[in-house]
Design brief:
Structural class: alpha+beta
Radius of gyration: 21 Å
CATH class of the largest domain: Alpha Beta
Distance between the termini: 39 Å
Oligomer: single chain
Helix content: 25-40%
Number of strands: 19
Number of helices: 14
Length: about 425
């Protein structure tokens, strides 16, 4: 079989590396890919958003299965073009993904389908938002409507702060925003593989998105994660499946937009065991993709094909995952853009790799073939063990072996905490 991966990020690298171990795959192609992905796939400089060219490439190279986790590609309508050409692709259509791509659409969708979510308001005008904030209960969370926005959500603890953030968002983006109540609790993301009608649990993970230990600082794209989530047992997964995932799938299928792929529900569970859905995810991020493919004890290609043809429930009673735990941390250069220091040489990677998995993100090689930092998020380091505690211990012992200028990372990953992330 020939397999095509669309995208060029860390997720695609993780996927290509995983698929390279599958002996049933003859060739892995990547559009556009990158130098790291080229270790495992043949990369071609095709515009990933040009659906006609990508479909043509798939036809010319006899691609049996295409996979994309790239939200920009999915939101562009690429899957629709593949379906029109009768080509197999494991990803949801543009229409099905609107519940995640647009925060406003997602919130209204949850309200319509009676999926419990924090109280929210969709704001079209800055003046309307200011009036809403005057009477809000603080803290509140202000989010850009577009999931692809570079502007991160902000937790605001007072009216003056919220007003300033709202003004900045309209100054930068001038588009809709969503304001929702801040919910304190334990957060998790639960992923399911789905054929649009049936859904099987894949993984529960706990994300670490705040820039400081203990849930403080700014919200980032993700600085760590672990799986499985300690606060999500089998009963809670069934509850999420029945009260969140299936109502969402039924509503989308009713509108002739069945969701095929990996769907995630970002949930928060309060100290009173109340559960709220924060957002949907149309694909796993890099940290969660790494957790999924580290713990998956099934043939992912078989899962994807079963989902595409609608036989997921017929072929699987469950999706087997390893009986182990993984803890991951992102190693950063937080002051990269603010210093005049040249790219920092990284040492100790080879020594750490004997015990942990090290994924290169914003890292490059210099003329001496040394690894150097070349951005903010440099490495993803992951440790696997039979227990969360064992994986955590192994992770931090080996992070100490890796050294470079101004290395930063969270030191409290896999320590349970009760704060919301968004």
């Amino acid at each position: 079989m020939q397999v095509l991966i669309i995208g060029s990020g860390t997720r695609e690298y993780i996927l290509a590396r995983y698929l390279s171990k599958n002996t049933d795959i003859e060739t892995i192609y990547a559009i556009p890919g990158n130098d790291r992905i080229s270790e495992f796939a043949q990369c071609y400089e095709v515009n990933k958003l040009n659906s006609d060219d990508v479909v043509c490439f798939a036809q010319e190279h006899d691609i049996g299965l295409t996979i994309t986790f790239d939200e920009e590609v999915i939101a562009s309508g690429m899957v629709n073009k593949f379906n029109e050409a009768a080509l197999s692709i494991f990803a949801p259509t543009k229409e099905a993904t609107r519940i995640a791509v647009s925060k406003a659409v997602g919130k209204k969708f949850m309200y319509k389908t009676k999926i419990r979510t924090p109280k929210f308001a969709v704001i079209d005008k800055e003046s309307t938002g200011v009036e809403y904030l005057k009477n809000a209960n603080y803290p509140v969370v202000i989010k850009s409507d577009n999931m692809l926005s570079v502007e991160r959500p902000v937790v605001c603890r007072s009216f003056p702060q919220a007003k300033r953030i709202l003004e900045l968002k309209y100054l930068v983006e001038n588009c809709k925003v969503v304001i929702e109540d801040f919910i304190e609790g334990k957060c998790s993301t639960v992923y399911f593989a789905t054929d649009g009608y049936n859904a099987l649990p894949l993984l529960s993970s706990v994300p670490y998105k705040y820039s400081l230990e203990g849930g403080g600082g700014l919200i980032t794209s993700g600085l760590g994660a672990y799986a499985p989530a300690q606060n999500i047992d089998s009963e809670k997964i069934i509850e999420i499946q029945q009260s969140i995932i299936y109502p969402a799938l039924r509503e989308m299928a009713k509108n002739d937009n069945p969701f095929i792929g990996i769907i995630g529900a970002e949930v928060i569970i309060t100290p009173y065991d109340e559960m709220f859905t924060l957002d949907f995810k149309i694909s796993p991020d890099a940290l969660d993709a790494n957790l999924i493919f580290t713990l998956l004890d099934e043939d992912f290609i078989r899962i994807a094909n079963a989902a595409i043809v609608g036989s997921l429930a017929d072929d699987y009673d469950e999706i087997r995952m390893k009986d182990s735990s993984v803890v991951s941390a992102v190693l950063c250069s937080p002051n990269y853009w603010k210093t005049n220091i040249k790219n920092s040489v990284i040492s100790g990677i080879e020594e750490a790799q004997d015990e942990v998995d090290v994924i290169f993100d914003e890292v490059c090689r210099n003329k001496y073939l040394e690894y150097e930092t070349c951005g903010v998020n440099n490495l993803i380091v992951s440790a696997e063990s039979s227990t969360i505690g064992g994986a955590r211990k192994k992770l931090y012992e080996n992070i100490e072996k890796i050294d470079y200028f101004d290395k930063k990372y969270l030191k409290d990953i896999a320590q349970m905490r009760t704060v919301q992330w968004v």
